[in-house]
Design goal:
Helix 3 packs across helix 5. The protein is 28% helix and 31% strand. By secondary structure, it is of the alpha/beta class. The protein has one domain: BirA Bifunctional Protein, domain 2, CATH 3.30.930. The longest helix is centred in the N-terminal third of the chain and has 21 residues.
Amino acid sequence: MIKQVVLFEDLGNMGYQDAWTYQEELLQRNVRLKSESSKQKPVPTRNYLLFVEHPPVFTLGKSGKIENVLISRDEMREEGIQFFNTNRGGDITFHGPEQLVGYPIIDLENFYTDIGKYMRDLEEVIILTLAEYGIKGGRSAGETGVWIESDKKGRERKICALGVRCSRWITMHGFAFNVNTDLSFFDHIVPCGIQDKKVTSLEKELGRGIVMAEVKQKVKNNFEKVFRVDLIEKSR
């Protein structure tokens, strides 16, 4: 079977709004291709995977609760934190430096039309990456994302958050994997709207900083493995 090709792009450090706009452009480009496609003249869509690090920002999902934000807008400005209401699923989360954010813009009709499976596959990419560092990651019943010791009450901690949007089976938004992330920012929110559970990072679990380039390569390799694709560098 011929593998799907996914165009990969590392956006480096980019503001949240600029990255969101770029995602929307890629998604709408695929929507237009689908509109032009027919049985007589099929027009293939393109799949993308974007990596990015954002300056400090809180983002609230479309079904999220603003009361899960524990500081005021003025306090956010004082601390240099931006805030955005978004069109993804999920509740409140934080993005910041040394956190690997992945935005797959892929046409699920090229793979499978099952958003639940897609979410589990994204989680699996991070679970496999954690295993390479000797960390057992897993899932928490009824909650998205990747967790450590999710079955041990009082010790559950989330290391990767997920939130996606899907339009005509084309995805956007994605995952936020805490690598060397400053976890103190999470004290200002109820992360993902989940009370009494902690947030962690790769650095905290291992007791040492991790080179971001190393983590990115492992995540790319595991993305190729889980989704059975070939990642090819995209030229802008």
